[in-house]
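A note from the maintainers: we've had questions about how concatenated examples are separated. There is no special marker in the raw files; a new sequence line simply starts the next protein. For clarity in this README we add a label.
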Amino acid sequence: MQTTYFWAGVAVILVLLDLWIINSVWRSSKISRTKLGWTALVILLPFVGAVIWSIAGPRGVTKGPSSPEHSKG
């Protein structure tokens, strides 16, 4: 029974990681075709896609804070 909870926990973590990756991909400055490719890879091969993305995925986020007040330290 405990192994079932373990694998359920792993699945939840993997889904959250994939959602974070997809969000990061769509916020990048790459073209839409590249974003669709990364999204498809991560959805079709969740673990392998996450590993490949961590090595070769797009870097940088184009959208910054929503207001100047938000970015103050």
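[label: protein 2]
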Amino acid sequence: MDVSQRLSFFAALFKVHENPTTGMWLLYITIVLLSILVFKLGFAKKLPIIKSAVIYTFLILGCTVLTFLGVFLPVAEGLVVAALILIIYKIRLHQEKKEQAKAE
């Protein structure tokens, strides 16, 4: 069985099967950036700097496990979809607030 056929999109894009070290680092960075984006768009609140540092430290550590799962499972792809949905939600929310401000 050929492993390259079972890879997720981003794992195949970063050629994890040909160059595992570079491919895994690129996949890890992608997952970390997408996780931070989804966290900021959906869940982040204003916190003191120390609490934010702790949250982002654990987020980055958790992405290590997600990276290993993301080789064969669509982890990064799911994060892209979540980020797109949250971006659309934030844009619509901003437009709705702007329209309400005009109406008042």
